[in-house]
């Protein structure tokens, strides 16, 4: 059985230990590969390589960096279907969804191709007599990325293209559940002309993560994952003097007002709730139906759910695939059971789903629960699966209060035909990303992605303008050239003249 190896200094390296993890095909339940789990020494090797390469890469011209990224963009675009198939084989999402993931990652690569424009500094002449002041941004050094299983191509692309374009070197620790895509992209970067050692990949678990958090030569860490781990990453990374952006979990509420276009809202709820089997941090997991909206909306949602085709992601007829592992599938099912026990009504139950010819796959069908209450675990916690919970609110104010009282603040949406209500919502809501008649408000690459409250630890969001700020440090220079008029001793505080 193939073992997925680390990528260090432009080559695959054999693991130094026998520690490994299984990589499943979620549709069949079979182990298809092994992935090596890095030791401290192997992480040290990757960081040392990145540190050594930094000496030259940080001085590479903007033209050189841009050429590499343009070439990489072309290679990813040429191989995007191959990458998408790898995603489907190891994650389980349907092929069309995987294609969309690669495309959204490419958008950040394209943004990074224009970093020379974004890295421009500022200058003022004669801030004092014949004194000029200017600023510019420089790389922070060796940076690390720790990324989740749900977007193994896209989320790393939120990080390393921007970091590399800014002159940093990079060590990526991807999810050990679906790691093949990362290695393939590392090879494409090499083919694009990126010098060996600028981008390195170490596969692993907590050992690798803790080594990166404590490593004295790692200057910054980007993370995307669950809130408990995001908090751990942030606390331990900053304690060790690192710059950290740690994006956590979500419980995204979609508010439906009684005047909304219910067909549009039903389409949105199904698409955003069950796409990628709900394994998205921007998935809609809670429908907050105001007034009589639920009575009009739920029959339409159930009609659409009845037509959904769940199956192997490589089957063109499939609209939703399996969950990533059996353990995760059972955890999602447990939230449905607890909600039912606590008094919620399970209108559509996906726990009994069977897929013909794939009896051992990690299946859980689209699930709809009504009359969910804020005190229930299925409402309070991130499920990360194809479970849509309906909470009924008597008023707009109650709907807003539900969102504000929830610990997460990643994304939200409102569906209404009332422009005043929509404007009030987007102005008042305490959430980082807001959709108005748009269920998944993921920003384009030239904005930045990130939530509020327990969905983000750190000051800067990921990719876009915030990404440039995160991967660089500002330097200010005050400059005057020798002039006889300014010689002599003066111990007074410098004054502008």
* Number of separate domains: 2
Individual helix count: 16
Widest sheet, order of strands: 15-16-17-14-13-19-20
| Strand residue percentage | 15-25%
The first-level CATH class of the largest domain is given as: Alpha Beta
Q: Write down the oligomeric state.
A: single chain
Spell out the CATH superfamily of the largest domain: Aldehyde Dehydrogenase, Chain A, domain 1
Radius of gyration: 25 Å
Structural classification: alpha/beta
Q: In terms of per-residue confidence, which ranges show pLDDT below 50 for 5 or more consecutive residues? A: none
Give the CATH topology of the largest domain: Aldehyde Dehydrogenase, Chain A, domain 1
Main pleated-sheet profile: 7 strands, mixed
How many extended strands?
Answer: 23
Q: Determine the fraction of residues in helical runs and give it as a percent range.
A: 25-40%
State the end-to-end CA separation: 74 Å
Describe the global form: globular
Q: What's the arrangement of secondary structure elements?
A:
Elements: E1 3-4, E2 6-8, E3 11-13, E4 20-25, E5 30-36, H1 40-57, H2 62-78, H3 80-91, H4 95-113, H5 115-118, E6 122-128, E7 131-139, E8 142-146, H6 154-165, E9 169-173, H7 180-191, E10 199-201, H8 206-214, E11 220-224, H9 227-239, E12 243-247, E13 252-256, H10 262-274, E14 284-290, H11 293-305, H12 326-341, E15 345-348, E16 367-370, H13 377-380, E17 387-393, H14 396-405, E18 408-409, E19 411-415, H15 419-428, E20 433-436, E21 452-453, E22 456-457, H16 464-470, E23 472-479
Parallel strand pairs: 1-5, 8-9, 8-11, 9-10, 11-12, 13-14, 13-19, 14-17, 16-17, 19-20
Antiparallel strand pairs: 2-3, 4-5, 6-7, 7-23, 12-22, 15-16, 18-21
Helix pairs in contact: 1-8, 2-4, 2-7, 3-4, 3-7, 4-6, 10-11
